[in-house]
# Entry
Amino acid sequence: MKYLRQAFDLYINSSIHVALAVVCFAMISMLEYNFKITYDLLAFIFISTITGYNFVKYAGIAKLHHSSLAGNLRIIQIFSFVSFLALIYFTVQLSVNVLIATGILGLLTLLYALPVFGNSRNLRSLAGIKIFVIAMVWAGTTVLLPVINAQQLLNQPVLIDFFQRFCMVVVLTLPFEIRDLIYDSDSLETIPQRIGVRKTRIFGVVLSILICVIEIFQRQFRGYSLLALFLVCVIIGIFLLGSRERQSKYYASFWVESIPIMYLGILLLMKYVLPNAVY
# Structure
C-alpha cells in the first residue's frame, strides 16, 4: 500500500494527471467540431502540459505546497527532461500556424513563472490575475489549437466556445484557490481573498449556469452535447460547494482535475453509446 501511495503521488506531482485533463478537453473540442482526432496534436498537448506545469511548479517560482515531493523530485526532473525531448519531436509534426499559436500560449506560461516584471514579480504574483492567466492558456490550448490545426476559421462560434471553456476552467480553479487560502500571500488578491469563500462558491455556480445558457443559444441545438455539459456543470458545482480551506489531499489535485476526464467520458457515452436516449 505504501508503494501504491508513492506511485499515485508521483502520478499527481509529475503533472501526468493534469496533462490528461487538458488532453480530454482538447478531444472534446475535436468531437464537438467533428474533427478527425489528431493524435500528434494530442501528444504534443499532453507533453507540453507536463513540461510547462513541471517548469512552473519546480523552478522555485510558484511555491506550491508539495510536502511529499522530496523523494520523487529527482524522478520528476528526469521525467520532465525526457518529456521535453519528446516535445521537440512532436513540435516538428505540427503546422506553422499551430506553432505560432503555441508560442503565444507558451509565452504566457513563461511570464506566469519567470520574474520578468519589477521587484522579481511574474504574472502569477500580480494581484487578481493568476486564475485568468491559467484559464486563458487552458482555453487556448484546448479550443483554439484544435481549430487552427484543422485549418478552420476562428469564427464567432469558436470564440464563444473559447469563452465557455475559459469560464469552465475558472470555475475548476476555484477549489484550488479556496484550498490555498491558508498559503497564498494576501498580495495575490485571489477571488476567495477578495470576496470570501461563500461568495466564491456563488460566483462559480453563476458562471456554470452561464456556460449552460450559452450552450443552449450559441449553436444548432445538439441534445447529447447540452446534456453532457449540463451534467458536468452539476458535477463541478458539487465539488465547488464541497471545497474547504482544509480539504483532503487529493480533493482538488485529483478529483477536481478529473472532471475534464469525466466530461469526455460522459460525452462519448451520450454521443456513441446512448444516442437514442438524448435526441
User: Anything to note?
Assistant: The chain has one domain: 2-278. Residues 2-278 form one domain. Residues 156-179 form the longest helix (24 residues).
